[in-house]
Amino acid sequence: MKKPIAIQGIKGSFHHLVVQNYFNTDSEVLECMSFDDVVNSLLEKQTDEVVMALENSIAGSIIPNYALIDSHNLSIVGEHYLEIEHCLMALENQTILDIKEVHSHPMALLQCKLFFKAYPHIKLVEAKDTADVAKQISEQNIKGVAAIASKNASELYNLNLLAESIQTIKHNETRFVIVKRNNDEKNIEAINKVSLKFELDHKRGSLATVLNVLSDCKLNLTKIQSLPKIETPWKYAFFVDVTFDAYKDFEKAKSIMSLMAENFKILGEYKNARR
Amino acid sequence: MKKPIAIQGIKGSFHHLVVQNYFNTDSEVLECMSFDDVVNSLLEKQTDEVVMALENSIAGSIIPNYALIDSHNLSIVGEHYLEIEHCLMALENQTILDIKEVHSHPMALLQCKLFFKAYPHIKLVEAKDTADVAKQISEQNIKGVAAIASKNASELYNLNLLAESIQTIKHNETRFVIVKRNNDEKNIEAINKVSLKFELDHKRGSLATVLNVLSDCKLNLTKIQSLPKIETPWKYAFFVDVTFDAYKDFEKAKSIMSLMAENFKILGEYKNARR
């Protein structure tokens, strides 16, 4: 029997939406209250596949999730891009003037802060999950409280939409990845994108040399991010995504890179979700 | 008369601590409730210098602040690194068992979440500023509520420390920058670090070529971050920091780079705060 797919949050969350888009509308999910719990479900084999947000067009990379994938030696096996649209929802017959508190995830509260400037009577309260608040309002018939969550959540929990797309920056795309314990069943034919991590000394030109190799091997860079290694001054870790046409080109680069860079590591090999 | 220095937050905030460390313990500050307000104070000439957090060892770059500096054509004129230590504080004679709510900035709540797992009776509530909560508890003699803020804030507002260094990840360093409208009064002798922004097409090897120039000109890379341009597919913006020994080496790189890369821009020239 197929195991459920672990997500951060509950049904109706953006992670759930990714499962429905990437896998199947009816896919069973395991609802987790943190990314640590998501990863634990994978390590303890309650799940074989999980979904994690990895970067956002507004906030950039979600470094703690990179660290979770890296430190547990997990594999990215797929990616999915989703436009995040925050909606405000409450029980039927409630208007925004009835609302005294809005509960949501701190990130959602931050992204919608400007919208609430016009409603100074509303108190913003941190909650663990966007969709969970919607669920509780619905199940416990809570008046005076609204949730910020996906439109999906309003439908799932029978809530009334008070406002749509209330985030300050309208174009708010998040990149999610599908993660497994390993990538043993990979289909080399379909792979045209790879996520890499490597370390370099703070020596002039060291990164340029590595990028020259990638370029010579016909790999295209789609993301690069440096992160100083806190415990080791002047040592940097780099997270790099590359795309390519032929897997053999990547194999060539891999063999050179593993000699050139310290702690060279493949975080995932998968199909590029951009056209 | 010297104008005040604008900070995000109030006296006792981490931004205030940076002003005290970088300028002077007695420097006057203009307390702002958002980074937008900080930048507005500069544009409207209420201030000539402001302090902004720019990146964090846990969360990575604070992309919205990069965007504020870039879009208003401001100049970074200095940098300062600060270890963030979150403390829990309340009125005298209150113990943690008396505390029913903790109010703080969403980022501080996130960073200290694990600490509060042992105290499920405490409700976490979002507030605008870490130090502002401390001030209110003190001024309005609020019992049952604690603040998460700097040790500095507990001293300034006469609060009792209930716990120190409660953030989950102990080493939590933030890089702050000092920002002016322009960098007209720069002292070339002292400058050994520069923040750059440029754009490149998604063409194989384009970044490697640029980094080769930097390397050939004896510049050392200390940070690199790519950001897809949302409105232009396949076009990328790069934020890069470089250090060097001789300003003339940078000038040489600058003249080549401005020909090679699109929208090449200097975000700031300043003194490296690392030894």
From TrEMBL, chains A, B:
GO cellular component: cytoplasm
This protein's UniProt keywords: Amino-acid biosynthesis, Aromatic amino acid biosynthesis, Lyase, Phenylalanine biosynthesis
Any one GO BP annotation for this protein: L-phenylalanine biosynthetic process
Residue ranges occupied by any ACT domain in the UniProt entry: 195-275
Pathway the protein takes part in: Amino-acid biosynthesis; L-phenylalanine biosynthesis; phenylpyruvate from prephenate: step 1/1
Cross-referenced Gene3D superfamilies: 3.30.70.260, Periplasmic binding protein-like II (3.40.190.10)
Protein name, entry field: prephenate dehydratase
Catalysed reactions, as listed in the record: prephenate + H(+) = 3-phenylpyruvate + CO2 + H2O
Keyword Amino-acid biosynthesis: yes
GO molecular function, one term: prephenate dehydratase activity
Keyword Amino-acid biosynthesis in record: yes
